[in-house]
Specification:
Number of domains: 1
Radius of gyration: 30 Å
Distance between the termini: 131 Å
Mean pLDDT: 79
Largest sheet: none
Structural class: mainly alpha
Number of strands: 0
C-alpha cells in the first residue's frame, strides 16, 4: 500500500466544535496582546505595572487590616471568619448578577451568536462556549480581588501548604456555580421577557421592593435607647428653668 493510500485509509480525528471555538478565540486574544505590545511598549509596561502595583497594594492593605483585627483577644478568630463569610456571600451575589447580565447579552444580544447559529454547530456547543465566555468575563475581577486577600489571610493565620491548593479548587467552584445559575436564569428570563404579564409583574415587584425599603428606612426606632447611650440633657435649658423657678419663689 502506498503512502497516499495509507493516508486516505487512516481514520481522521477531527477536533470537537467546542475545542475549535476555544482554540480560535484563544489565538485571537493572544494575537491582540502581541499586537498591543508591538504598537506601544510604553502602554504595555504601564498596564503590567498597574496590575503588579494593584496586587501588591491590595495584599499590603489586607495584611494590615487582618493584623489589626488579630489584636482583639478572644474575638479575632470569630470576627475574621464572619467577615470572610460575609465577603464571599456578597461576592457570590455580585457574581450571580454579573453572570446573569453577561449571559443574557452573549446569548441573545450578540452578533457572534447569530453567526454561530448559521454554521453547522450544535446549539449545545454554542451554549457551552457562551457559558465559558460569560464565566471568564464576569469572574476575572473576582479573582483579582480575592487573591491578595486569601494570600494575606493565609500568612496571618499561618496555614499549611495544602490550604492554597484547596483554595484554588474552592475558588473554581465559586466561579462555576454563579456562571451556571446565571446562564440558567438568563435563558429563563429571556423566555418570558417579551410577555406583557412578566413585564408588569417585574415592575410591580420592583416598585414594592423600593417602597418597602423606603418605608423601613423612614420608620423610627420603636425601642428606646439605654441609659448609657441616651443623649445627655441640655444643661443650659435645665439651668434656665431652675432660675425661673427660683425667681418665682
Amino acid at each position: 500500500m502506498t503512502a497516499p493510500e495509507a493516508a486516505l485509509s487512516a481514520p481522521h480525528t477531527h477536533p470537537s466544535s467546542l475545542g475549535l471555538l476555544v482554540r480560535v478565540n484563544s489565538l485571537t486574544v493572544w494575537r491582540k496582546l502581541k499586537s498591543l505590545k508591538e504598537q506601544s511598549r510604553l502602554l504595555t509596561a504601564v498596564i503590567f505595572l498597574f496590575i503588579i502595583s494593584y496586587l501588591g497594594l491590595a495584599y499590603w492593605l489586607f495584611l494590615v487590616g487582618l493584623r489589626f483585627l488579630g489584636r482583639f483577644p478572644g474575638l479575632s478568630s470569630m470576627l475574621i471568619e464572619r467577615l470572610l463569610f460575609l465577603l464571599f456571600a456578597f461576592l457570590f451575589v455580585l457574581l450571580l448578577l454579573s453572570n446573569l447580565v453577561i449571559s443574557y447579552t452573549n446569548l441573545f444580544r450578540n452578533r457572534e451568536t447569530s453567526f454561530l447559529l448559521s454554521l453547522p454547530v450544535s446549539i449545545d456547543t454554542i451554549f457551552q462556549w457562551k457559558l465559558l465566555e460569560s464565566m471568564l468575563l464576569a469572574s476575572w475581577a473576582f479573582v483579582f480581588l480575592i487573591a491578595p486577600f486569601l494570600a494575606a489571610y493565609g500568612l496571618t493565620r499561618h496555614v499549611a501548604w495544602h490550604f492554597y491548593l484547596m483554595t484554588v479548587l474552592l475558588i473554581g467552584l465559586s466561579i462555576v456555580l454563579p456562571a451556571v445559575i446565571g446562564s440558567f436564569l438568563a435563558v429563563t428570563v429571556a423566555r418570558y421577557l417579551d410577555r406583557r404579564l412578566f413585564q408588569v409583574m417585574a415592575m410591580a415587584g420592583m416598585t414594592l421592593l423600593v417602597a418597602g425599603a423606603a418605608l423601613v428606612r423612614s420608620r423610627p426606632g420603636s425601642r428606646p435607647l439605654p441609659a448609657r447611650l441616651a443623649p445627655p440633657p441640655n444643661r443650659s435649658r435645665a439651668s434656665s428653668t431652675t432660675c425661673g423657678w427660683s425667681r418665682k419663689a
